[in-house]
Amino acid sequence: MSLENVPVDLPDFELVANMFVEEGVRVVSPSELHGLISGHLAAGARLQPTMLLQTACELLDIEALSHESSKVTLVNLYSASCEALESLDLDFEMLLPDDENEISQRADALGRWCQSFLSGFGLYGKHTDASLSSEAKETLTDLGQIAQISIELEELDENESDLMEVQEYVRMAVLMLFTECNKALENKEKAFAQVEPENSRLH
């Protein structure tokens, strides 16, 4: 399966949730899957389709995806997330239940998203990188605290406003981490490209 010619719109939360039902996934939410993918991308990792499917199946605790449509949805989710993070428009969005759901459900999904983001970020080893700025390290600490968010929230305007504020903070935090880690990666690649021709000359 190729990443080419795959739509880059972020799949709807309910679409991914229905895919989980079809695949027999019971213990993981769409938000957790998207958080893991986003953490990988923010840390500088890039997964080929085969590895992406394998990583997703490990998270979902299944042997393999049974339906071709599920594979397309997963690759679509990955491609859309990567493109949004790389975009200069700052239009990255997290895969969370829409506003019609209860606030406690949305808060729980945000906490799970952050927890999985940190797992994905950590799998790449970036969370222990001494080169991370102090701001990035503080941001990771903040995300860790948000991952423990209380889900026992009443349907109050104040709580709704607070949740939206935290959600926006997380969104911008992810973009900041992506920019820092991927810029460092890009600089390394450029430096390597400049050195490589010199070293590869025949003498």
UniProtKB/TrEMBL annotation:
InterPro entries: EF_Hand_1_Ca_BS, YgfB-like, YgfB-like_sf. Pfam families: UPF0149. Belongs to the UPF0149 family. PANTHER family: UPF0149 PROTEIN YGFB. This is UPF0149 family protein.
